[in-house]
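Researcher: Structure prediction, please.
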Amino acid sequence: MFNSSRPQVNRPLGSVEKTSEFGLGSEVRCNPDDLRVELAGYWSRFLLRVKKQSEVVDREQSAEEVRS
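Model: Predicted structure follows.
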């Protein structure tokens, strides 16, 4: 019947600007392995930004505790 357990969904792609926003470059890739690598890179960069921001907040809170 079906070759895969997941249904295939064909959706129109948005503008190229949206793909570059997520680090996918100017071209849309159809290779699932490339997409996995791009998404892993995106989430790695995202988590690194969150970690840096939380470190800044922690330093600010520590400075406030020292002052009080």
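Model: The mean pLDDT is 75.
Researcher: Thanks, that helps.
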